[in-house]
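User: Need the bound-state model for norvaline:
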Amino acid sequence: KAKTELKDFLHISDFDTDTITNILLRAAEVKALLKSGERTYLPFKGKTMAMIFAKPSMRTRVSFETGFFLLGGHAIYLGPDDIQMGKREETRDVARVLSGYNDIIMARVFAHQDILDLAKYATVPVINGLTDYNHPCQIMADALTIIEHIGQLEGTKVVYVGDGNNIVHSWLLMASVIPFHFVCACPKGFEPDEKTVEKARSTGISKIEITNDLKEAVRGADVVYSDVWASMGQKEEAAYRQQAFQGFQVDETLMDLAGKKAFFMHCLPAERGVEVTDGVVEGPKSIVFPQAENRMHAQNAIMLYLLGF
Ligand code: CP
Ligand code: NVA
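Assistant: Bound-state model below.
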């Protein structure tokens, strides 16, 4: 299959630059249409989506369900206790059964292999709504938000501060497709997956830095980006991580060091007073709520692309 004819949306780097750029352009177009109050564009009329959640969610659940509905379709929420994918029933069976009922599947899971298996056995498109490894829909929404506030992602300096987690992996995979300067500033021992860093660097598309020197990292940033120190599935490590991440809180002093042009972004949910201060989240450079809103618009464009509209 050609790169642009993939069935599923699992990793940003599965797609070429033109496809990702076009999805982002489409997101802006359909956003403008929906914001204008227009409710007659209903390409998903008669279509249904199954949404599998093995983990909690506010943004992913509500933005997918609302977006699919606003474009004419019906979305079905399946929570952690409903189908119990991999426990009550094998993933490959879930994939084939749901493909018989639904036009598209979105799933949030723990092990990345689960989303790969789901996509392999489903005959309908599968969208990755976060795994322990990555979170592509989030970084598509983040790119859209950066385009809206700065004009473009190309050439900007995005400095992620914190754990080298699923969000970082998706930023690295975005950096394999669109050229910008990505810096991950994390404590020693919390660096992102080495193979993913290498994969992104080997494309030669973006400048990529992984550093333990936070103060140096944020200088000249266009965006300072933060996420929780303990992701879903790591909550029992929260106390230990709070110790290990001392000095990596995004506070007003750090934002001053970054400079006047730096926006603050966070995928949310945020733990104020832990990875970021309340003052930064509520501050004049924070764009966390437009960022959250853009989840719906980015995902609408992803679904339109996968369903052939
Ligand atoms: N950012 C994000 O994915 O939020 P939820 O966990 O609430 O879906
Ligand atoms: N890294 C976080 C992102 C939440 C949207 C987690 O996986 O819990």
